[in-house]
Specification:
The protein is 48% helix and 15% strand. The chain is an alpha+beta fold. The protein has 2 domains: 63 residues, no CATH class; 31 residues. Strand 1 and strand 2 form a beta hairpin.
Amino acid sequence: MPVEHTFKWRNGTRTERLTVARAIRIKCYECMNWEPGVERLIRDCPIQDCALWPFRLGNPEKRSLPTERVERLRERMRSINKSRFWRQTHDNLS
């Protein structure tokens, strides 16, 4: 759910609707003072006690769903798609 926020931007301020991921990214940019090559600085960020550190850009420990949950979601989507196909085909025949 995007929230409107005013933040420091390169040469001044900017107001924008930010998602959580975008807000974290902007905070990391601000923390690194918009230095050239900021993506690399964020990826190699040494401030591991920062609350946003696990969610910064380039983090190799990205959260992912457990394999069994992914399989359950895939199976659910297959069944939903099959029922939609069935309804569309049978609605067109009537």
